[in-house]
């Protein structure tokens, strides 16, 4: 993949409670290695507190900021180049957070630390995290259903209502939001003016799991008593009145 195609790669920033809960543990993992000289300037418990706090706060800014900006300006589906711009914008705030944390947990290390060093250190860590996010997004997309060859109207029945970047992306699920419809595709999501009934009439190969939600058969990863999880990580409610019919439908699909 050439540089232009790589930077143009689009994905929907994913956030979840599970991802947020892993952040302090990733900080603890860093503490074990003691990077950037912290192994010799801070004791073990100082490193644990410092890296857990910093990774949690900065990681939250990365995940939450990306999710909100992508939804606000890119219909939920932003290009990698924009993600890198956002990452670069986070470097100075992240360095300030680390600087403040060192003042709390590792004052003995202050004589050995220069603020410019914190800038490149945070840039490195943020880019490593971004690489992980991008790889995860690419792997999620590679597992999603691909539209079969067909005319544009047949393969992408909602294409005329979606933003250009999503027009040729398979629809994974749709959810009713008042008088609008949120369409989830393999490349992101968009809010369009349409009812769920109108959309379901155009779509095929799926099941209405709730009065407000419809899903594509190839997008299901797992389900529980009252919830269906898609391969993108999106979780939608499963009506208990439709659960038996859903299980029968899913068994036929598999």
Kindly state the percentage of residues in helix. Answer: 40-55%
Number of DSSP strands? 10
Instruction: Sketch the major β-sheet.
Output: 5 strands, antiparallel
Mean pLDDT: 85
Order of helices and strands: HEHHHEHHHEEEHEEEEEH
Structural shape: elongated
Low-confidence stretches: 147-155
Helix and strand arrangement:
Elements: H1 3-8, E1 10-11, H2 17-33, H3 38-41, H4 44-73, E2 78-79, H5 80-105, H6 115-143, H7 152-155, E3 171-177, E4 180-185, E5 188-192, H8 196-202, E6 206-210, E7 213-216, E8 220-223, E9 227-230, E10 235-237, H9 243-253
Antiparallel strand pairs: 1-2, 3-4, 3-7, 4-5, 6-7, 8-9, 9-10
Helix pairs in contact: 2-4, 4-5, 5-6
Describe what you observe in this structure.
The chain has 254 residues and is of the alpha+beta class. It folds into two domains: 3-143, no CATH class; 152-253, LytTr DNA-binding domain (OB fold (Dihydrolipoamide Acetyltransferase, E2P), Beta Barrel). The chain contains nine helices and ten strands. α2 (17-33) runs antiparallel to α4 (44-73) and α4 (44-73) packs antiparallel against α5.
């Amino acid at each position: 993949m050439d540089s232009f195609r790589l930077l143009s790669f689009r994905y929907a920033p994913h956030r979840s409670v599970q991802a947020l809960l892993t952040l302090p543990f990733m900080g603890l993992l860093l503490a074990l290695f003691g990077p950037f000289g912290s192994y010799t300037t801070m004791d073990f418990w100082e490193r644990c507190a410092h890296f857990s706090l910093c990774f949690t706060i900065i990681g939250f800014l990365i995940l939450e900021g990306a999710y909100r900006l992508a939804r606000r300006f890119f219909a939920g589906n932003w290009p990698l180049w924009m993600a890198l711009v956002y990452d670069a914008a986070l470097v100075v705030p992240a360095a300030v957070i680390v600087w403040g944390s060192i003042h709390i947990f590792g004052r003995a290390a202050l004589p050995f630390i220069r603020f410019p060093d914190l800038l490149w250190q945070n840039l490195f860590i943020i880019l490593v995290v971004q690489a992980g996010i991008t790889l995860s997004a690419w792997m999620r997309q590679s597992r999603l259903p691909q539209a079969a060859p067909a005319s544009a109207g047949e393969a992408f029945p909602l294409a005329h209502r979606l933003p250009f970047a999503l027009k040729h992306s398979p629809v994974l699920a749709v959810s009713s939001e008042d008088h609008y419809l949120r369409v989830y595709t393999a490349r992101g999501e968009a809010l369009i003016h349409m009812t769920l009934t109108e959309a379901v009439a155009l779509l095929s190969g799926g099941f209405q799991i709730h009065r407000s939600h419809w899903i594509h058969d190839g997008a299901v990863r797992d389900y529980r008593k009252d919830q269906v999880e898609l391969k993108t990580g999106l979780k939608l409610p499963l009506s208990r009145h439709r659960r038996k019919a859903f299980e029968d439908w899913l068994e036929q699909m598999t």
